[in-house]
Amino acid sequence: QVQLVESGGGLAQPGGSLKLSCVASGSSFRNYVMTWYRQAPGKQREWVATISSAGRTNYIVSVKGRFTISRDDAKNALYLQMNSLKPEDTAVYYCNRVPNTNWGQGTQVTVSS
């Protein structure tokens, strides 16, 4: 089974930055579309950003221009660089492949002054 481990969350001030990481077990990482999701308190989990195996990216409108998704297939790693953070970015962030596999524990991002 694939294991996904997210890290890099924390407390940031509005306008600040954080970089999230996700490491996946297994040898087929490079073949999958990888995605970041987030779940804010009291809300459903939502898609944030996607990167294809060829490096093509897509973002939810609310983070476009502020967040950058990237991957390092040699390390089975997925990243999310988050700049110009806003309080509404506060959520638990998860990574997963497409189609989804087991969910990791996520990493908490809190944006507050």
Written account of the structure:
This protein has 113 residues and is mainly β. Strand 5 and strand 6 form a beta hairpin. It is built from no helices and 10 strands. It is 0% helix and 49% strand. The strands form 2 sheets. Strands 2-10-9-4-5-6 form a 6-stranded mixed β-sheet, with no helix packed on it. The mean pLDDT is 96.
Structural class, judged by helices and strands? Answer: mainly beta
Portion in helices: under 10%
Approximately how much beta-strand content do the residues carry? over 45%
Strand order of the largest sheet: 2-10-9-4-5-6
Mean pLDDT reading: 96
How far is the N terminus from the C terminus? 40 Å
The helix/strand series, from N terminus to C terminus, equals EEEEEEEEEE
**Largest beta sheet, briefly?**
6 strands, mixed
Q: How many separate helices?
A: 0
